[in-house]
Amino acid sequence: MKKTLAAIALASAMMAFGLPAQAAEPIDPIEPVEVKNPALVELGKMLFFEPRLSRSGFISCNSCHNLATGGVDNLVTSIGDRWAQGPINSPTVLNSFGQIAQFWDGRAKTLAEQAAGPIANPLEMASTHEMAVKVISSIPGYGEYFKKAFGDSKVDIQRITDAMAEFERTLVTPNARFDKWLKGDKDALTAQELKGYNLFKSSGCTICHNGAQVGGQSFQKMGLVRPYQTTNTAEGVKAVSGRDQDRMSFKTPMLRNVELTYPYFHDGAVWTLEEAVAIMGDVQLGRRYMKEELADISAFLKTLTGDQPKIEYPVLPPSGPETPKFNPWAPAAK
After folding, report:
1. For residue range 155-179, what is the model confidence (pLDDT) as tens digits?
2. Is the same domain home to 277 and 299?
3. In angstroms, what CA-CA distances link 23 with 36, 144, 271?
4. Which of 128, 130, 273, 282 is such that its CA lies 20 to 30 A from the CA of 118?
């Protein structure tokens, strides 16, 4: 917050001296990530799309974080093993590497930690880490990919999740029109979009939605001014900390590509940007936006959509004779 307020103050000072304010905006352009180990990224991509990491052999990371639809599944809450309904909306995997933590409640500090969670979650992939290692080890074609990425063909859960995390680090979406405006292209935004951005700033939205990801840098109480009405039972950070004061505190979602990542909020209850902005203005800021203001802010938010990752579905190696065969209706592993 201090950084954001300082940035706003600096922007005001620069405008006073006739300097371009873009240089001190609370939102930064997002840039492509330099790939230092392409073999590790390639292995991670294969594992991201690998359904055999799940107990049923049908669910992969891409099932809930579909790279063709903004890194989400566009469901209220995700569908997991044996059609289990998840408890919370799936956040986007795009641009996720730079956040303060992973998951809505921040229970994973790194992308690798996050990747490990769904594999063993009975409502998601419903396997175990031990079984995941056994399965991948039994597929002959994976050996050469692990050797290229790590120097030898050993398979363990840390290597599996490290590879997936390295792939996910590359899933950034640069070249949004707003980024072009930040970099000096004054024609990149329409008058309405610029009006919406200025209202977004003056309302105080950038206190939480700032930086390159336009969010993901803090935990905030949902319903700061007025209670947020929901039937969802997720407790937020309280589930991790155990402290009652953390109930309904969630990681601030990123707003990059937000027009693609509906439905919105941790409960997936809202399907349009205009309604999401109206609710946030009301329960977080105590402000009732007019219809025109909702349209302006929503128009600005749509300028945060960048180049989507162009990822081809990888050719996964065939199972070997020792690869476990699964009964998708058998009891989940304990």
Report:
1. 999 999 999 999 999 999 999 999 9
2. yes
3. 29, 46, 34
4. 273
Model confidence pLDDT, tens digit, residues 297-327? 999 999 999 999 999 999 999 999 999 887 7
Residue 223's domain comprises 2-32+175-304
- Spell out a b/e string for 196-205, using b for 16 or more CB atoms within 10 Å of the CB, else e: bbebbbebeb
Same domain, 42 and 8: no
Question: Which amino acids are annotated as binding site for heme c, given as ranges?
Answer: 61, 64-65, 205, 208-209, 280
Q: What is the DSSP string of 231-253?
A: -----BTHHHH--GGGBTEEEPP
pLDDT of residue 326: 77
Its pTM stands at 0.90
Cα-to-chain-centroid distance, residue 224: 23
Q: How many domains does the chain have?
A: 2
Domain membership of residue 200 (yes or no) is: yes
Tell me the average pLDDT across 101-128.
Answer: 97
Please identify, among 147, 169, 191, the residue that sits at the C-terminal boundary of a domain: 169
Q: Is residue 322 part of a domain?
A: no
Identify whether 309 is part of a domain: no
How confident is the model over 187-241, as pLDDT tens digits? 999 999 999 999 999 999 999 999 999 999 999 999 999 999 999 999 999 999 9
* Cis peptide preceding 263, ω within 30 of 0: yes
Instruction: Tell me the average pLDDT across 35-53.
Output: 98
Q: What is the DSSP letter of 270?
A: B
Domain final residue pick, 144, 169, 194: 169
Within this chain, do residues 27 and 42 fall inside the same structural domain, yes or no? no
Binding-site positions: 61, 64-65, 205, 208-209, 280
Nearest CA to 256 among 214, 197, 291, 211?
214
